[in-house]
Amino acid sequence: MKESLSQSLTRYYPFAGTLHSPESPYTLCNDEGVVFVIAKHDSQMNMSQHIDDDDDIVGQLFVDGLSWWQQSPNKRANLLGVQVNHFACGGIVVAVAISHLIGDGCSFGSLMSHWASVAHYGSLDHKDVLQFNPHFLQIPATISFHGPPPEAAVLGTRCVNPVTRKFVFPNSKLNDLKNTVVALAEGGSTLSINKPTRVEVLASLIYKTWAAGFKISILLVPVNVRNKFVPKQPQTTVGNFGSFFLFTTKHESEASLKMLVSNIQKGKMELECVKSQQLAREKVDTYLSILSKEEDLENYKTFVCSSLCGFPFNKVDFGWGNPAVVGVTLRQEKRVGCSLMDTPNGEGIEASVTLEAQDMERFQNDKELLSYCQN
Questions:
Q1: Which of 167, 236, 308, 365 is the most buried (most CB within 10 A)?
Q2: Which sign, positive or negative, has the C-alpha torsion 63, 67, 71, 75?
Q3: Which secondary-structure segment (H or E) carries 97?
Q4: Which residue spans within 189-312 are E strands per DSSP?
Q5: Residue 352: in which H helix or E strand, if any?
Q6: CA-to-CA distance for 207 and 217, rounded, in angstroms?
Q7: Which structural domains are found in the chain, ordered by start?
Q8: Which is it for the CA torsion 38, 39, 44, 49, positive or negative?
Q9: Beta-carbon neighbour count of residue 134 at 10 Å?
Q10: How far lies 68's CA from each of 35, 56, 73, 147, in Å?
């Protein structure tokens, strides 16, 4: 695996470099390499143990216990860390940590797919290796890399006592949820809802369940905007090519399923105008400017819902077959929110939800939410 990663990094060379500083808009491609550790565990692998449920277990799987980092591990300049975990039963867990300063989920998925393909076939030049051609976009020097304004702090509500739980929603029940939302919208409503997706209705349900505990709250949804650029950028474009939309809920009527789905669809439509990295940044600034005018802003609670559905993580095959379990953990970031990912069999969505301990107790016992979960 180490050799195949080395080969793959000749294509994805920025990940083997370093950052001049955390604020640097460029990487130093100095062949510094990445952190690569092989670990042996005397314990048996427990497939029923969700990767997000136990922070101690997660910490043992990742390099230096870092299941997430915004900066580099141990203040090193490396941007990528890999730990291959061998268990006594013969099971293997490959834990990969990437600095979000250099790439997003799309970049990460592209790298993982290419690396696994090289490992599977043994050579970068094998005819069956996935022909990923990473694309590097030159950002004009006129683009500002200034830090976020003070009001941006509200966009990441942090947990003091974070608890993470995983919930599985089968497609059959998500279809029922979609039908429910459509029926609510057609029942004399003036709202416009056009063929809601699984992610739209599930994000709405999860946020609605959480927001019931607060008077004022914000839903923030990150969006990959590569295909909105002119010209369109391939999904193998390396870097952070995203924007987001958000909206506030101040009254119970604004947190209804039909209203939330409608607002999510409106938010996605507003991002259709994001044709460049500069416009993506300007859209973020616009949302922050609107937020700065809100009264009582410091009392807002923010829920971030990030979807990785459709990404290739469940098909990352190093030669052992597709993974039995895939997890993305952001728990060490302690941010209130959830990440959505396709189930390994493709027949549903797994939601990894991180909340304050007391909020999770209420959330995980909500009857409406549980009615759409896997029994």
A1: 308
A2: negative
A3: strand 92-98
A4: 217-224, 242-249, 301-307
A5: strand 348-356
A6: 10
A7: 2-121 (3.30.559.10), 153-371 (3.30.559.10)
A8: negative
A9: 18
A10: 14, 14, 9, 21
102 torsion bin: left (phi>0), alpha (psi -120 to 50), beta (else): alpha
pTM, entire model: 0.88
Work out the widest C-alpha separation in the chain, in whole angstroms.
Answer: 62
Half-sphere exposure of 42 (CA within 13 A, CB side): 0
Tokens of 109: 């998925």
The answer to whether 110 and 15 have CB atoms below 8 angstroms apart is no
Count of beta carbons in the 10 Å neighbourhood of residue 56: 7
Round the CA-based radius of gyration of the chain to a whole number and report it.
21
Residue type, 292: S
